[in-house]
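Each record in this resource describes a single protein on a pair of labelled lines. The shape at a given residue is found from the number at the same position. The record below illustrates this layout:

***
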Amino acid sequence: MSEQSSLQIKLRIKGGSGPNANWHWEIQDADGKVIKTGSAVGPEHKAFATARIAKEKLEQASGK
């Protein structure tokens, strides 16, 4: 039903902890080339959700 994406999300903590954690995320293609970057403050699951939304927008824009 769903197609496997060639884009990957890489998430790293840059500082803080808990609700004040500062996360840096990257969306990479299959070759490891960085397509988009961003940051988020808060728990890990919220930072990942932010990156996932950006990834989905990139996939829609490329027609996947």
About this structure: Residues 8-59 form one domain. The first strand starts at residue 8 and ends at 15. The beta strands are 8-15, 22-28, 34-41. The chain is about 30% helix and 35% strand.
